[in-house]
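HOLO CASE FILE
Compound: guanosine-5'-triphosphate
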Amino acid sequence: MTGDTIAAIATPPGEGAIAMVRLSGPDSKKILGRIFSGKPSMPRQAVFGRILDGGEVVDQALATWFEAPGSFTGEEMAEITCHGGILLAARVLELALRHGARAAEPGEFSRRAFLNGRMDLTQAEAVMDIIRARTPLALRAAALQLEGRLGRGIEALRDGVLETVANLEAWIDFPEEGIDPASGRELLAKISSLEKATASLLSTADQGRILREGVRTAIVGKPNAGKSSLLNRLLGMDRAIVSETPGTTRDTIEESACLGGILFKLTDTAGLRETNDPVEREGVARTGRALEQSDLVLHVVDATEEEIPPPPREGSILVLNKSDLAPGRHAPSGAIRTSCLTGAGLEELTKKMVSSAGLNQSAPEQSLAAINARHKALLETARTGLAAAAELVGENRPPELAAVELRTALDALGQIVGATDTEDILGEIFGRFCIGK
Ligand SMILES: Nc1nc2c(ncn2[C@@H]2O[C@H](COP(=O)(O)OP(=O)(O)OP(=O)(O)O)[C@@H](O)[C@H]2O)c(=O)[nH]1
Ligand SMILES: [Mg+2]
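Model generated. Tokens follow.
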């Protein structure tokens, strides 16, 4: 379909047992024949042989040839598995290029897979999510998306919208009859239910971001409350400087931790207080920004303090730290008593953090839609279109008007799976891939 044959190293650079160079395009087998002594006679069967550069043996390797359309890209492909190492794979790639292949662009293999109808856009994006997943849960969600679950959900929505557009157009064609009240009610119910389904997918957008990027968690409180100690405890290493001098942390410190299967992006912050020191003031300003951008706030309070200051933000988790120094101190409901000195309460805190992330880990199949920012923007357009169409039908306005709104929704849904693609969307998506994928 695409004409030329591309090649790339598919494995990361560095030392390893094996590395893989892959080719895709009509000349894959021909090029393989020029640089590899083995003769693949059957598709999808690995053959042993030698990589040859003229008369010189470069390496011993395995090669697999895939006949179109039975390959990842849907084109003829070849995969050469040679020994790992920094130089060897580059040498094999260079040989392939010298014998007629072109160096692949980032994501070009997946782009070809999409263009050849091997997967929809949400599945192509899932491939990238799988590669980038940093927690088991994120991996699970991406695997479900690769299986086409999100794509099927979107397709079902599209079918529904298409059906309502077709209904409306029948009325447009016979304007003298108008929409009879019973059919109008039925249509309205249908559009409303589509809008609801779209909204329910949209409501998982935060979940998707949390799965991919982690829960943005700000650790906030007065100087010396033990914020940096808590960060270190949660990370399981001495990352931030801890000292008895209030005002030790002056800049925000960001680190990621996988707790209870979920990724948390923890930000330790400068203690909140009035100050004339310009550096500390800037630190406090940064604390404010971290607070604004966070999904979750750990409000750390020294348990020996008389009064508990008001939470910096609604929904904060109150952490009464240094509980070892105030054993009798009663904790308000919802608060968690911890000691970064002894480790008490930290498990309970982690549990609370995990549950407040709102991901249902026991039944990921049902809860993890994991839509990304691109899906979210398009779903919002679709929902707006559906809501407008529902209003127009409800007010018994000319059916043409509602049809325009439904077409907007249809187009947005189509872009999610790539059914109504444009060149720039593809460039945008596949440009983020790594080379060789
Ligand atoms: N006894 C006791 N001491 C603690 C506990 N947590 C922290 N500390 C001590 O309290 C002091 C301040 O701890 P930090 O973690 O630096 O406090 P911070 O909130 O980051 O302080 P700033 O960065 O100055 O805002 C240090 O001397 C810690 O060793 C605790 O649970 N129990
Ligand atoms: Mg600190």
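CASE NOTES: DSSP finds 15 helices and twelve strands in the chain. The pocket of guanosine-5'-triphosphate (ligand 1) is lined by residues 223-229, 242-244, 246-249, 271, 321-322, 324-325, 339-341 (CB under 6 Å).
CLOSED: yes
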